[in-house]
Each structure stands twice: as C-alpha cells, then as structure tokens.
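Could someone model magnesium ion with this protein?
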Amino acid sequence: MTDDDLDVSDEPTDDASPGADKQTSANRANTSATSEPSGQPTSVSDSDESMPSSNPDTDEEVDIDQNRDFEVDLDDVVLDDDTDDDSQGLFDDLLSGEPIFENKEVLRPSYTPHELPHRNEQINNMATILVSALRGDTPSNILIYGKTGTGKTASAKFVSQELESTSKKYQVPCDVEYINCEVTDTQYRVLAQLANEFNEKNRSVIDDKIDELDELLETATDDQTALADTEYDTTDEIKTRIEELRTDREELEEVPMTGWPTDRVYSVFFDAVDYRERVVVIMLDEIDKLVEKSGDDTLYNLSRMNSELEHSRVSIIGISNDLKFTDFLDPRVKSSLGEEEIVFPPYDANQLRDILEHRATDAFKDSALSDDVIPLCAAFAAQEHGDARRALDLLRTAGELAERDQADGVLESHVRKAQEKIELDRVVEVVRTLPTQSKLVLFAIILLEKNGVHNINTGEVYNIYKRLCEEIDADVLTQRRVTDLISELDMLGIVNAVVVSKGRYGRTKEISLSVPIEETEAVLLSDSRLGDIEDVQPFVQARFDN
Ligand code: ADP
Ligand code: MG
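Reply:
Sure, complex below.
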C-alpha cells in the first residue's frame, strides 16, 4: 500500500460550541459507571459553573461533590489570579489541556469488550460446538488459529463467560479454565495451575454442600419429616455424609508451583477434575508457545484423559497464532486436538473501522476525534496484517500525543506520529533482543551506511563484521552464516536486502537499513558488549580510503 492510500481527507475539526461539549461530557462522566476517576478533576474544572451547586446540609454524596468544587476553586485561583507564567506548576499546563479521553482503559488490551463486531461467525461456531457441554455431553476439542490481534482471545473469553453463566442458569455443571501458555509454559505449571483451580472450585462446592446438610440436620433433628424428600433416612446418615465431605475436603492437595514429580501433579490434577460430575473446558491460549517450550506431553496427557475419567469429561480449546505448530505434534495428539478447527481471518480496514468506532465511543469525549482519525488508524493496522490490537494501540497513542500537545482533539497528524512512535518502539525492542552475532552484523551495516556506502553487499558487511568480532573477542561466523543472519534481519524488517543480478558476475545482495539509523545505533551501543567497541569510525574510514 502506498502512503496515498492512507491519505484520508484533512478536514478541519468541528470546534463549534466547545462549552456545550464539555457540559455533555462532564455529565456523562458523572453518570457513567465505567468512567476513569482520575479523569474527573479536569472535566469538572472546565464546566463547574454549569454544575449544580452543592448543598452543604445534605448527605455524604453531595459532600463528595463539594470536595470536587473545592478542588475546582483552587484550580481557578491558580489559573485566574496568577497571570505570571513563572507561577505555573509542573502539572498546571497538562491539567488545563482539554481532556480528550473519557475512559482510556477501554482502549487497553486488558479491557474485555462487550461486543465483538465481525466475529459472529467464529463465536457462533464455538458456541455450536460447546453447547454439548450444557447437554451433559463432551464437546469436540477445538483448535483456533489466526494471526495476532484477530480477536481470538477476546472471542474465546467471551464464549467461555457465556458458557459458564448459562451453565449456572440451567444448573448444568460446566467449568471453564483459561490458561495463557505464554506465561504458564511447562507441563508442570499447566497441570499445577489447573489442579489448584479445579480444587478451589471443588472446595467451594463441598462447602456449599456441607452448609446445606448442616441446615437439613438442624431441621431434621427437630422434625424427622424434613427427611422425607431427601436421600437420607436418618440424621446419622447426614452426619456420616458431612464427615465424608470434610475428609474429602482435607484430602484435596494444593500443588506447589515447583518441586513435585510430574506424576504426582498429574494425579492430583486428575482427581481434581474427576471429583464430581461435570464437563470441564480447558482453554489453552498461545498453545504453540507451550509446545515450543515443552513439547506435546501436556497435550498428549490431556487429550487421552477422557477414557480414564469416571465422573467428568474434558474438552480442550487450543488457541494459536502459528498455523505450523501442529507439525510438531504426535499424530494422535494432532488429530484429537484438531477435531474442530476455527480460523480467525485478519480484519480488513472497514472491519477495523467498525471495531474502533465501537470502542472509541466509550473511550473518548464527544467530538474529541476528527473524522479522519479512525479511518487512518484502521488503514495503518490493516497493513499490519489486520491487527485489531495494533489499531487500538494506534488510537490510544494518538490520543495520548494529542493530550500531550494540549490539542483540542485528536488529528490525523497525531495518528501519523503515533504510527512512527509505535514502529520505533517495536524496532527498539526487536534490536535490543537480537543475539549478539546479529547485533554485530547490524552494527556493521550501520557503520557502512554512516560512511556513505550505498547498495552495501554481503562481502563488505562481512569484512566489517569480522573486525568488530575481533574488537570484542566474539567468535567469527562464516560468511554463509552471516548471509543467513542478514536474511533474518530482512525478515524482521530491520534491513532491506534485495538480490540483484550483476550480469556475468552472478548475483549479489544489496543491503540497506530500513530503520532509523541514530536510534538503532544507540540501542546497539547500549548492549554492554557492543558498548565496548571504541573508535571503529577511523578504522572503517581507512578501509574505504584504500
Ligand atoms: P488475539 O488473541 O487474536 O491476538 P485479541 O483477542 O487479544 O487478539 O484482540 C486484540 C485486541 O483487539 C483486544 O484488545 C481485543 O479486545 C480487540 N479486539 C479484537 N477483535 C475485536 C472485535 N471484533 N471487536 C472489538 N475488539 C476487538
Ligand atoms: Mg490472544
């Protein structure tokens, strides 16, 4: 896509009657339960004249308002009486800026949206498969695929909440456990976490049952007829049952987060699942990370559990960004896990626009966004493989930049700056975490560029790279390996390497940097090993003077 495609018409912001806007947003801030408390002082301070005045003689709630008015007055004193600029405190400028956000949290990844536009099909597919759990049958296992930011986690969490609440409504026992395998990335930890969570649920079920029986026991002691509709013939039977439950409860072991043999963890987990009749849905998000880190043992054990469970049934939902991870699975695991597959395709720009519009209504003050902001965020994120997370990040960052500029609203220019900022943050992170050898290769390319070398070829990179290795006593890789590392840097979007034909001299790679040179060099030099390289400049110069 060219930059032209992203050029959304640059219409002036509608800044009619800002006072009225402020009034509405302040009112909204007061009525909306989700509004961010920290956003309030600013919104109130701008509109306090039109706020209902507080009555000192009434209840507590008004007192809170009074408090606010007090803050507001103080603010006004500072701003009105001291015209001298020097008296402005560190926060005054920032506070006096027009508030842009109504509730910034709405744009953060941790926020669970109530609506997921353009995911109906996937959500319905999941529900159709999982509904068997509510009929007491075992749902097929599901594998969910899709690139990052396509709404997999959000949709899966939405469906599991619905499933659990419906199971309560119809009193069909069904539990969903969610595990993020990027964090919980070994078989031990997955099983331990599941065991402990299922046992917590078991404990509360046991406690409820004991309470219920205690009550029955009390009534039945006075009045034997209370036992008529129960499974107990005598109060002694109730007492025995209560004792059994107490023993069960004591026997539920808490698995420590390290230290036990895996067999023992598995056995506690198995008993925890099988303690009572129910369908258990285990959701393994970022499942590819688990397989990458610890192989497929966990999945193997989970997928063959059903044949051994007596009371309960397990169903697994695996979620992955990486379509290829199943190649590494035992064929039995692969076929069991992939009974059903649901694909989450990337969002296109129009879909991203809808998603952003839904979220922006709650996140921003009325008319804080100029018309082209959302379409531009959507267009940028559509380029980035249709990533809704990226789109939301862009919108939030653009809002933050506008806030910092003390602008009246978010403009297209803020989105462009936000795009640069996010891109730079990404580059910094990628470069910072490169292995030393790749850093050396990249540093060699930077040094060549800084010395005005264009269309750099692999040989030139290799020569500088070797000298850099000597400088810091690093192993020198072969030119072939270095060529591979250059290709990796190309795939990461840090350099651009094109193969060009040199006629009878064969083909060669022409390499150029695709990231900002100063910032990238600074990140490289912040690595303690590379930071030791002194004065490479003259040496590079000397080579080219030859
Ligand atoms: P994935 O798990 O596929 O990487 P997520 O479900 O974490 O993606 O989504 C990334 C971000 O985008 C989250 O903040 C999520 O709330 C949001 N999001 C994704 N799809 C939608 C949608 N259809 N509607 C609203 N928000 C969405
Ligand atoms: Mg996810």
